[in-house]
Design goal:
Helix content is 33%, strand content 16%. It is built from 4 helices and 4 strands. A 4-stranded parallel sheet has the order 2-1-3-4.
Length: 137
């Protein structure tokens, strides 16, 4: 089982969407995703919850969490969300960076565009790593 961590600063938008979409499309026998942040917010951005609800993903029970060494233990890939020098770093993990705009303070139209970009990147990653669920191949 491979574990992918999607991380940003506040774990309230991009990383939450990325992990949820990854878990929707990944073969659960092969891979899973978790999300975390270096300075977790109190809650997921409401507009992010709305945008994900539109495509049938419920983030109402998602809670931002801190990226810790314990959380990262056993993971093999860290995907950061374009947060520059503030992006988390975990020694020993493969790292990829997706330069995505922060949905914080954005309207629903912009958040939908970010969601679609994330979905495309997740599907590309899963295809490249041969981790797509058989129902999505």
């Amino acid at each position: 089982m491979r574990t992918f961590i999607f991380a940003c600063i506040h774990n309230a938008g991009r990383s939450q969407m990325s992990a949820a979409l990854f878990n929707r499309y990944a073969d659960p026998a092969k891979a899973r995703a978790i999300s975390a942040g270096t300075q977790p917010a109190e809650q997921v951005h409401p507009v992010v919850m709305d945008a994900m609800h539109e495509i049938g993903i419920d983030l109402s029970s998602a809670k931002p969490q801190k990226l810790t060494a314990e959380l990262a233990q056993g993971a093999d890939t860290l995907v950061t969300m374009g947060c520059g020098d503030e992006c988390p770093y975990v020694p020993g993990l493969r790292r990829d960076d997706w330069p995505l705009p922060d949905p914080k303070g954005q309207g629903i139209e912009t958040v939908r565009q970010i969601r679609e970009e994330i979905q495309n990147r997740v599907l590309e990653l899963l295809t490249r790593e041969e981790l797509l669920s058989p129902q999505h191949v």
